[in-house]
Specification:
Blueprint lengths: L1 H31 L3 E5 L3 E3 L2 E3 L2 E7 L6 E6 L5 E10 L7 E8 L2 E9 L3 E5 L3 H14 L9 E7 L1 E2 L1
Antiparallel strand pairs: 1-4, 1-11, 2-3, 4-5, 5-6, 6-9, 7-8, 7-10, 8-9
């Protein structure tokens, strides 16, 4: 009798766990299946890749959306980067690419596909190095505080 209760409890826990995993996977797949396209008016960096200004498509390469492919429409330039899920404010449903600008260098930082869940690209060694340098300068003068800027480029989701 005790064995049957344990088996039944284990089966119920397994089914509940399976349902939760399925729900999370389908929610991620819905967000990551969107293709975002934008005309970026400046050259920028994704990971260690320098990409020229132009028309780009950003799409997830996995069902979970963890890896993003950034590819020019003419397929001459491309880069892949790991990303993390990012929650926006409720009601904010814009389609955009968000860049972090340090001086004249632009790093792709976020991709938003028109819902409140976006993707945040993992920072490269180069970008982290620039951030550390600016942090050490900021204690010395206010000029360093003005060298970082968040730049948003409007995009289209398909």
């Amino acid at each position: 009798m005790t064995r049957q209760i344990l088996k039944a409890s284990a089966m119920v826990l397994f089914l509940v766990g399976l349902a939760l995993v399925s729900a999370v996977t389908s929610a991620s797949a819905q967000t990551s299946s969107r293709i975002v396209s934008a005309d970026v008016p400046f050259s920028f960096i994704v990971g260690e890749q320098h990409l020229p200004a132009g028309k780009y498509i950003v799409a997830a390469t996995t069902n979970t959306g963890d890896t993003l492919l950034v590819k020019s429409r003419d397929a001459r330039a491309s880069a892949m980067r790991l990303s993390n899920s990012l929650e926006g404010r409720r009601g904010e449903a814009s389609v955009k690419l968000v860049f972090r600008r340090y001086g004249q260098r632009y790093f792709l930082g976020e991709v938003w596909g028109g819902d409140s869940i976006g993707r945040q690209l993992i920072k490269s060694k180069q970008e982290r190095s620039i951030e550390r340098e600016l942090a050490s300068m900021s204690s010395k003068n206010d000029l360093a505080m003005n060298t970082y800027e968040r730049v948003e480029v409007v995009a289209i989701a398909r």
